[in-house]
Each structure stands twice: as structure tokens, then as C-alpha cells.
Amino acid sequence: MDAKLQKLKEKIQDADLVLVGLGEECQYDWNALLQDERYREIEEETGNDERYIWIAPFLQKMILCRGREERWDKAYHILREMLEGKNYFIVSLCMDDYLYGAGFDAAKLVSPCGGFRMMQCAKNCAGELSDMPKESYEAVLRYYRGELPLSALEEPVCSLCGEKLRFNQLGVEKYAEEGYLEQWGSYTKWLQGTVNKKLCLLELGAGMAYPGIIRFPFEKVVYYNKKAFLYRVHPQLYQAGEEIADRSSGIAENPIDFLLSFENYST
Asked: Which residues fall within 8 angstroms of residue 241, CB to CB, at 6 or more apart?
């Protein structure tokens, strides 16, 4: 592995530009929330009552913010160091928002699947996003602490049409793409500037959940740009197409573990 780590470092250092794709394998394991005893109690208390479905994402945001996983923080710190001084862009499928607290340039990030940063009308009545109502978050937090009864919680609603508010995440009935389209425009413009440039692509954990966002486009970029090289890191789906076999390297490993392997490695 040391030889591959060394080669990857050299490729990044030598590249004019670096494109990183964070796939679903980089996502926080939502099942880990069940390790929180209070979270399990709330799940049992609310059961399948549709009136309280909205509480779960607020709890997820709270737990993610309260106890950022050191493992992810270390991995993203290493990635940030690898990209230091480089012209880079990061495309992420992760909705846990860990990337946005890791010190990267926000102008160089795009998350087409959304996250917990903004909210939207469930019906996307006006194509607009809004900040999370702090009073709703605080009420759920107090309920989590046992300071408020479940019956005291009120679901936040859209100020324009009165429909329910939801976090701007893929999976919402009418997902508001306005949350990422401006940054996606910046990304496509940046990508246009990679033509005939030495480009290193680092694909971390992108499987077949949304292959049209990272996996297939990255291969296409390498196919057309003869100066590009792709590193594909995935536990199972690390293979690249035969047509770019000479300009790609597959690494069968969990992407977070892969980044952490750089922690005690020096050139």
C-alpha cells in the first residue's frame, strides 16, 4: 500500500488540478445513531405516528453536530492537507455535512444530494430555501433532554404556503435542486478548465447509488483527457473501464480507512 500512497501523493502534487468525488461509502453510518440510548427511546415513543416523523432529521442533525466522529474529522483533515495549495473541486454525495465543517473552501464544494444546512417547503412551492427555525431545533433538543413533553412539539411549516418544512435533502417529495444548482454551475465551469490539463481524479467510495453524478462522469473525463488519471477507492466496486485501464488505479478499501492510512505515512 505504501507504494500506492506514494504514487497518489506524487500524482496530486504533479497535477494542475485535482477533482475529488465523495461517494455513499463516505457517508456517516446512520445505523450508528441507534447507539444513542435516548434516540432509541424516542423512536419507541413516537413509533409509526406520522405526526412525529419530522422529529427524526432534527435529532440526526443534533447528534451529528454534538458528536462529530473523530474518524471522519481525521480523514477529511488528511484530505485537506493533500489538497493544500492545489486547484481542486469536491463533489459529494454525502448528506451528513461533515465535509462542510472540515475547513475546505466552500466555493469548491458541491453536494447534489443536499444535507442539513438549509430547509425547504415539502412541496417546493416557490423554489426557495430557508434557514432552519431555531425555535424548532431548540424544542426538539429540550424534548431530547426530557425538558419538554412530546405533545409540546410543533412541526415547522412554510411561511408562504403553510406546507411542512423539510431539510433540503434528496428524498423529499419535491426536492429543491435550487440548493445546489449554483454550485453545480461553478463545478461545470471549473471542469471546463481541466481540458488538456494534468488532472488527478480521486474517487472515494462512489458506488452505483448515483453513478451519473460521480462514477460515470469521472470515467468520461479521463477517457477524453489523455492527461488525466483516476484513482478509484471502493471496498468492492474499485474497477474502472478497460478503455481507461492505463490511466486509472483501483484500490479495494473503505475510503475513510484509505484516507486514514495516510496519517502515519510520510514520503
From this structure: 219, 223
Q: How many angstroms separate the CA atoms of 251 and 56, rounded? A: 35
Domains of the chain by start residue, with CATH: 1-28+69-113+175-267 (3.40.50.1220), 29-68+118-169 (no CATH)
Burial of residue 91 (number of CB atoms within 10 Å: 0-12, 13-18, 19+): buried
Tell me the pLDDT tens digit for each residue of 29-40: 887 788 889 988
Claim: this prediction has a pTM higher than 0.90: yes
Instruction: Please say whether the dihedral angle defined by the alpha carbons of residues 115, 121, 125 and 129, taken in this order, is positive or negative.
Output: negative
Report the distance separating Cα 126 and Cα 204, nearest Å.
35
List of residues 6+ apart from 118 with CB closer than 8 A: 129, 130, 131, 132, 167, 168, 179
